[in-house]
């Protein structure tokens, strides 16, 4: 079986550096931001398997009302970033997450990303995210945290605003 050059090495390095997300991570978090590379215009199988593994929390209603958002990347232009992000919205709705898109609520959105979530095109792994794409990702983080904070502590946020 042939693989993309360097893919296996990169995957192994990332798996050593970061712990695999668990069901417990989804349970304690106030917000969940799913990120995925686009694989043939769709969600990566690893993320799909993780989402499928949240069935116990879904059944118990433990994800209802948590904030959810998405980001993604492709290797090639028109590789399916928006389609992939939108395809994750369905499982997020089933899990009971409150979906937080980006819209065009920040000037950064007019330079990079999509209204559905932060994105990047790596041009076959030759480009890293530039300052415009990083600004969109930072905006997404702030927006999701703000909505999660409002939902978790509405009185405290209102009193200090």
From TrEMBL:
Sorted UniProt keywords: Flavoprotein, FMN, Plasmid
GO cellular component: membrane
Transmembrane parts of this sequence: none
Domain NADPH-dependent FMN reductase-like: 25-85
Single Gene Ontology MF annotation: NAD(P)H dehydrogenase (quinone) activity
InterPro entries: Flavoprotein-like_sf, FMN_Rdtase-like_dom
Cleaved signal peptide residues: none
Any Pfam family the entry gives: FMN_red
Cited PANTHER family: FLAVODOXIN-RELATED PROTEIN WRBA-RELATED (PTHR30546), FLAVOPROTEIN-LIKE PROTEIN YCP4-RELATED (PTHR30546:SF23)
Protein name: Putative trp repressor binding protein
Species of origin: Pseudomonas putida (Arthrobacter siderocapsulatus)
